[in-house]
Specification:
Strand content: 15-25%
CATH class: Alpha Beta
CATH superfamily: P-loop containing nucleotide triphosphate hydrolases
Radius of gyration: 20 Å
Oligomer: single chain
Order of helices and strands: EEEHEEHEHHHHEHEHEEHHH
Number of domains: 1
Bound molecules: adenosine-5'-diphosphate, magnesium ion
CATH architecture: 3-Layer(aba) Sandwich
Distance between the termini: 48 Å
Number of helices: 11
Shape: globular
Number of strands: 10
Helix content: 40-55%
Length: about 260
């Protein structure tokens, strides 16, 4: 399988002098759900903004399907095509939602694709249905619950039809039910063959959805299969992260099994 993104020795320093990312080398493969975990301030949001070509790296190189992105940020024709292929859902849904109704927010992306009006309407209706938010279509985003805002924010990228979706902390501040729904949406993206990069400090989320994970704390600390990387308690503690519940449960089960074996003997 090919690479969607390749980063080579990428660093990013904000204009304030704040160093956010140091010497990041990583890959995003076609069709995978890739998790990026790390404590607050680790640089997760900055990394997603680099992948979305909203900011250029201070040093190092970023490639999108083999094309060097560094030189392309001001290339309007390239960026128009790039924006169709890659969509970022911001951490804060209030950044994503700015129209007077949810329907208008969902229409905003595909309106720029030059579709005929019937196709545009079809895509909007389909999105409302897939995300089960038909009842929110005429509501003002400002008046939605946080969970509803989140779903609406993720929904805005669906009708664009991008095959690469970048999700920044999609489940933070969600109740259990909304969290389950957002996980369902990610699996939906996966079933459609899309590439998903999801940042989170919710390690249980990553265990549930991701096929690979990077642990980020300014630098890349670890990379690999989520169940092995995220069961390294020492690594998590050193980087201010808690052991995920799913790992604790797995360990408890193993201990119980061992106990049962010992009793049988
Ligand atoms: N606009 C900005 N200007 C200056 N520093 C910033 C800005 N945004 C983020 N930072 C800093 O960059 C670092 C990484 O932030 P961020 O990427 O938001 O981390 P995370 O998403 O993992 O919490 C932090 O130290 C943060 O304070
Ligand atoms: Mg963030």
């Amino acid at each position: 399988m090919g690479e969607v993104f390749a980063l080579r020795n990428v660093s990013y320093t904000y204009p304030t002098g704040q160093e956010a990312l140091l010497d990041i080398s990583m890959k995003v493969m076609e069709g995978e759900i890739l998790g990026i975990v790390g404590p607050n301030g680790a640089g997760k949001s900055t990394l997603l903004m680099l992948l979305d070509a909203l900011i250029p790296p201070t040093s190092g190189e970023i490639f999108f399907r083999g094309i060097r992105l560094n030189d392309k940020l001001r290339d309007r024709k390239f960026m128009y095509e790039f924006r169709k292929k890659v969509s970022l859902v911001f951490q804060d849904p209030d950044v994503q939602l700015f129209s007077s109704t949810v329907r208008k927010d969902i229409a905003f992306g595909p309106e720029h694709l030059g579709l005929n009006p019937a196709e545009l309407e079809r895509r909007i209706d389909e999105t409302l249905k897939v995300f089960r938010i038909e009842h929110l279509a005429q509501r003002h985003p400002y008046n939605l619950s946080y969970g509803e805002k989140r779903k609406a924010a993720i929904a805005t990228v669906y009708p664009i039809g991008s095959d690469v979706i970048l999700l920044d902390e999609p489940t933070s501040n969600l109740d259990l039910r909304s969290r389950r729904e957002v996980i369902g949406l990610m699996k939906e993206f996966e079933d459609e063959g899309k590439t998903v990069v999801v940042s989170s400090h919710d390690l249980d989320l990553i265990l549930e959805v991701a096929s690979r994970v990077y642990v980020l704390n300014r630098r890349i600390i670890a990379e690999g299969d989520p169940w092995s990387v995220l069961s390294d308690e020492e690594l998590l503690e050193r980087n201010d992260m808690e052991v995920p519940k799913l790992i604790e449960i797995k360990k408890l089960k193993e201990e119980l099994m061992n106990l049962a074996h010992a009793i049988q003997r």
